Fold this sequence. Notes:
Layout: H1 3-6, H2 10-43, H3 48-76, H4 78-98, H5 102-130, H6 136-161, H7 167-173, H8 176-186, H9 193-198, H10 202-212, H11 218-228, H12 234-238, H13 245-260, H14 263-277, H15 282-306, H16 312-335, H17 337-340, H18 342-360, H19 363-374, H20 380-409, H21 411-432, H22 441-449
Amino acid sequence: MTDTHKQIPIWLYIVAIVASLGGLLSGFDMGVISGALLFINKTWAMTPLEQGWLVSSAIAGSVVGAAANGILADIYGRKKIIIATAIIFVIGSLFCGIAQSITQLIISRIMIGIAVGMVSFVVPLYLSEISPQKIRGMLVSLFQLAITAGILLSYLINRIFANTEYNWRWMLAAGIIPAIILLIGICFLSDTPRWLLSKNREDEARDVFLKIEPDGDVELHIKEIHETLITKTKKEKTTFQKWMFMPVFVGVGIMFVQICTGINTIIYYTPTIFQIAGFDSAIGALYATIGIGVVNFLMTIVAIAYTDRLGRKPLLYIGLWGMLISLITLGSSFAWAAELGTAGKWIAVGSVVIYIASFAMSLGPVAWIMISEIMPLQIRGFAMSAATVSNFGFNFIVVLSFLPLLNLIGNAATFWMFAGITALSMLFVYFFVPETKGISLEKIEKNWKNGVSARKF
């Protein structure tokens, strides 16, 4: 442990871990449907498009949750919204487990999606506002680590219940447990000092700052935040000014890069992809999927260790190059499957492993870090909500269209298409994404306001 980390109170790490459990809910939903889908198909026969709707129904709910969340988080605070998401997730998971038709299951998954959309917005926001500048990247990365932990947990749950009666029902209902843990834990935490100051609750904000950084200059922090808040009139507080366009554009853009390079086609359909690649049984595909979940989790830890050392952009470049190479290779393994024989199956597995590892140590956590850092304080709730809505909007399109695309243009062409998007994403990162390592949220906002180029931050 570095000297910097020794100076951080244990209380802050506890807060970050508890709040990050919201990411575990999001990851659990992503992963659990991938395995459950294999068995839901045995209960109700579905076309590829119907399967796409079932998987993406939660994402549609996420769009609604993220859209409403920005305003609600600014009004009621970050903590109360996290409490609400946990309650909704408990109810939705229960309804999924007892669904008696595809329609009921889709409606229940939409409910879960609303909770996922809310938590995917509010937890990174909460973590960025509660974190000291020197370890902000690491603590916000805990959200993505929790997502990967949730995915891995869901893969393990899928395997545990695979051979039981009512297997997919137990898989989906198991989400109740982490949701209850989050609900209990978050009740004992404080709201963020930045939100408290925006509501003129300065004494409470000062107490939270003293817990976060006992040796820090609390009055300086409070002064900096007051300077970023426009307090003259209500109209001024909500006016979207011209200089704010660029951070919102970058936030939406980084979400496009995170999703449209194909990550959730892998996460949601890993067992399906492995069956296409040559794994004959559902159990074999699930075992291979667990391995992918382990890689995803471990490589996210790498990102946490280096995001505040190397910086955000170097990690993005490394990850995008790895994703590009692996997508080209994955597509090629399908294109020449007949010539490769059994080797093609393992080339596909290796490609997916490299892809997941590259994503997990770069775009996975860094995209959420970026949107939590670059948005102006006076529109942070709205702006992060807009970025999160775009994330789920892109996600909905990609996940819904994946199986039909495989049928329409073929396995190889589909993954080569994602490779092309990945190549273009590198240019976006180079020209538009700023390096925010070691820069305070207030300084980042001043740079945008002064028209500083993203390449000169």
